[in-house]
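ingest -> validate -> predict -> emit
validate: passed (alphabet ok, no gaps, 378 aa)
predict: started
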Amino acid sequence: MKRLAGILILLVMAAPAWAAKKITVEQLKETLISLEQAKKSDADVATQLKQLELTEGLTRKTMDTLAPHAPGPLASQELDILAGRSAVLAPPATELPATPAPNVATQRAILGKAIDYVTKVYMQNPHLTADKTTTRYQDGVDNIRTNSGMTSNMPNVDRAWATPNIFMRLLGSHTEPVESEKGIEKAGGPKVKAQWGQNGQVSEGGPGPILSVILQEAATGGKLAWLRWETIDGRDVAVFSYSVDKKSSHYEVNYCCFPVTEDTGRMWEVAEPNMQTGTTWKGFKEMVSYRGQFFIDPESGAIVRIVTQADLKPTDFVHQEDMRIDYGPVTVGGSRYFVPLRNITLTEVVPNGDNYAARYSVRHTLFDMTYKNYQMAH
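emit:
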């Protein structure tokens, strides 16, 4: 009953959501040129870009053509954010190859090559180390209520209802060593002393799902379908969509931690009664259905990119986990291996959890992770 009351309070008291203006990549280009011609400052251009959201993917090639129109580092950073937030979207139709879709037999042959590539090449990768740099951008609440145990929330009500920061901004970045073996990044690396949020929130963008597991689940218990051709690094790759239902899924969404607050009674003081609450911390951990795309080199079967999108409910503490991993070749010890080069992860969470004493809001986070300096592990 208390939790239901809290949810009702959230629905009634939540402020109207601010909505970004949705534009295409071509409209973004026109906007930048117009601002350049008007001789707007770096700060002015950045402010304009903050209020936009792309409906198409912003590719690296297009980014390179837009960069000269950004007057400074603030505008350039906003372009990076726009590119990251559109990372799982298809690029404009004008950037896609005009090549007709292959016949069914050719599609099956490409998928067969991909299975061979994952099992005979990617999963045979040796024990490797790399330097992983994680850059984090975030919007949302600045002051998350972090009290735990029995306490009074009433004196801090102004802080609890503070207006969220609606624009995504750079929080920082850090580099740490990571290890991988048979194409799987090992968990439990060195502890990184980076304060991403006042409530220790919530994830630092993990290594991502295991490529071989996703391919197996999509090929056996899921649905695979031809989607389109797309050009990546100058080569046309075959893009297949896939979906895996919850029954066949081993995709786990795991975030920690969210405050859960309940009334524990009232403390009657001389002046006035004071409401008492008890706050505990609860993780979100659930096996979910998911969907996405495979990007496959039709000649070698190499998977050059994978997109995963978890299917989550509006009532969950986690609303979104979209991930794109780009793979490419590196030479280590005179041998050539295909490895992850970049991981872009987009999340939306409810940082206040069930803490109905605080304002209801959502927090969007963009993790941009790059892997460099691959070496043989000792």
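The CA atoms of residues 334 and 375 lie 11 Å apart.
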